[in-house]
């Protein structure tokens, strides 16, 4: 499949040059609905079930203020793409528009925010998140083209100050969506005031500006020379706080006790792959470092069924993966030997 065409940097400068008339009417609330296999209004694609997996994963991984941010990013990008004409022919084909692909890009763009894991890597959170997003998508059955497009866009999502070069549509949209949500960059020229209200009431802000200011400060402190250092001066220390378009909408960070319990369900093994245990994700991918492991099985904790994976060779520092179908049941690894590194 050929790579889509690109748009020029900086994307907000390009949009200003189009001299578009501001949106005259708001969208219906249903316009912003996330992809769902139960939807009767939005076209379903092969990516729709993967979008549902991504929603479940993000609900467990990110705290509520982060989860709401990625949904607002999706909604803002969707509205702007509609205004500019990127969602309709001929631009949609040229630029590679796909609503489900855009959803996956938006909802996974900040998995590098996962502070339980991010600070264990020297990678900038954008790069770390892009790599993790690609791994997750390939594990869920997405094509390499989809996984690569999301990875590229996640890595480039904070590069909104670039003054030369170009970027593809998904990267442009995540810069637009996240740029507006944190800095108000779309304001009324690209996003109807009522749309802004609909989006922020559906996914409340929960004090995201102050919380993010703190977490990005931690990124700078622990990773000198990270990508955040390119734009932090104009953003951190109050640049995201008190924006006119969010007056009365900022809110406060809510109690995250429930999320902390959900977060315990997310596992990260030696290779950085993630699983959500005891969920209804349908397809489960199991990764094992089989040093000195002679045989391996999966035990279904719910009904004691055993799924035999068979004997394996103890190849040093190698990894074996299996994919199993389930219906939200709980599985445990049962092995003969030692150094079984991963739990389901």
Give the structure's gist in a few sentences:
41% of the residues lie in helices and 13% in strands. The protein has 344 residues and is an alpha+beta fold.
Ends: how far apart? 34 Å
The protein's oligomeric status is single chain
Give the uncertain stretches in residue-range form.
Answer: 269-344
Secondary structure: helix percent? 40-55%
| Rg calc | 21 Å
Overall, the morphology is globular
Mean pLDDT figure: 79
The number of distinct helices, counting runs of at least 4 residues, comes to 13
Order of helices and strands: EHHHHHHHHEHHHHHEEEEEEE
SSE-based structural type: alpha+beta
- Lateral strand order in the biggest sheet: 7-6-9
Number of distinct beta strands: 9
Hey, roughly how much beta strand do the residues contain?
A: 5-15%
User: Tell me about the biggest sheet?
Assistant: 3 strands, antiparallel
